[in-house]
Design a protein that fits this description.
358 residues; alpha/beta; eight-stranded parallel beta sheet; three-stranded antiparallel beta sheet; 14 helices; binds flavin mononucleotide
């Protein structure tokens, strides 16, 4: 097996330049270990975990693989509480709580915190080989402490401007996240409205603007997409949605069922679940809230207010109020164990490289 460039595989110490995206609330130790054991980079989305849960997940993952692992955190700004917005959000959500018999709408509480000194201590103690951030980078001292231990640092960029900023601040490789991507937009410098370039446009412009290896993300779901990313100048790919229908993915069954029935025109970017733009399958909640997204509190405060609704909806096997995160290439998803899916992805990409385009 040969890849057009080994820049990323050399940097990360892996065999194949395919990263299973860290997905807070969806990636699991079993998923990460299966991908790392298959020669890719398995990842854990740790942004919503306490330091104790983080340590225990790393322990479980390390028991299942001795290959490199990748952990991910959020570096968003802490939210400013806004009583008027909280009251308005309660009003908007109350009818759904009543419909599902869930009692009162819970108050807005920050459930996950930006990466801080406590989490840094846990990271330095367990020393994952690779650490990445979403929503920009934390303060310089925290970054320096991570880099000083030899940990490889990655971060998502949704514009050339962000990629150049990340290079200046010392990341080892940039993840170029196109508009197709499932889950939250990593945008932190550009406006959300401005940073909507698709993967096809974003990747080659980022490749031209930085010297670092570029990892393409967003809408890559099979070997054709992987090969295309290399043609655009990427040194590797990060794929999220494609791994959500693996048995190892930690999402509700109803989410998997809906993904397997969905296609290109079923997703939309919404702020209604968390307070920050994220792509998911359109459902009743997204449609109902479309006109009210700007009335809600800041990220991640909306999460606590929507949490019980999402849980209850999933428990009843209905997708109406579940955050059905998904990228635009969802129509290509396959329900396979992660190791098998991974082998197929490598084979399919190799076939394009060796036999050309059929
Ligand atoms: C369910 C889900 C959760 C995600 N959570 C995170 C996360 O916690 N941290 C992160 O950096 N990216 C997260 N992402 C975004 C991925 O890193 C990546 O940009 C995206 O999955 C690529 O697009 P694709 O889904 O079309 O493959 C998430 C994506 C999905 C689908």
């Amino acid at each position: 097996v040969t890849w057009p460039t080994t820049k990323l595989t050399d940097l990360l110490g892996i065999e194949h330049p395919i990263i299973q995206a860290p997905m807070a609330g969806a990636s699991t130790p079993a998923l990460a270990a299966a991908v790392s054991n298959a020669g890719g980079l398995g990842s854990l989305g740790c942004a919503m975990q306490t330091a104790d849960v983080f340590r225990s997940e790393i322990g479980t993952t390390r028991k299942a693989t001795n290959r490199p692992i990748h952990v991910n955190f959020f570096a968003h700004e802490a939210p400013s509480p806004d009583a008027a917005k909280e009251t308005r959000a309660s009003e908007l959500l109350a009818p759904y709580y009543e419909e599902l018999g869930l009692g009162d709408v819970p108050p807005a509480v920050a459930t996950h915190f930006p990466f801080d000194a406590t989490m840094l201590e846990a990271v330095l103690a367990v020393r994952p080989q690779i650490v990445s951030f979403h929503f920009g980078l934390p303060d310089e001292e925290l970054i320096r402490a991570i880099k000083d231990t030899g940990i490889i640092l990655l971060c998502s960029a949704t514009s050339v401007r962000e990629a150049v900023d990340l290079e200046k601040r010392g990341v080892d490789a940039v993840i170029a996240q196109g508009w197709e991507a499932g889950g939250h937009r990593g945008t932190y410098l550009s406006s959300f409205e401005g940073a909507r370039a698709g993967t096809m446009s974003l990747v080659p412009q980022v490749v031209d603007a930085v010297k670092l290896p570029v990892i393409a993300a967003g809408g890559i779901a099979d070997g054709r997409g992987i090969a295309a990313a290399f043609a655009l100048g990427a040194s590797g790919v990060q794929m999220g949605t494609a791994f959500l229908t693996c048995e190892e993915a930690g999402i509700p069954d109803i989410h998997k069922e809906i993904l397997l029935k969905s296609r290109d025109d079923d997703t939309r970017v919404t702020k209604a679940f968390s307070g920050r733009p994220a792509r998911g399958i359109v459902n009743r909640y997204i449609e109902d809230m479309a006109a009210h997204e700007d009335e809600l509190p800041d990220f991640p405060l909306v999460n606590t207010m929507t949490g019980p609704l999402r849980k209850a909806s999933a428990a009843r096997g209905k997708g109406d109020f579940v955050a059905l995160w998904s990228g635009q290439s969802v129509g290509l998803n396959r329900a396979l164990p992660a190791g098998e899916l991974f082998e197929k992805l490598v084979e399919e990409a190799q076939s394009v490289f060796q036999h050309g385009i059929k």
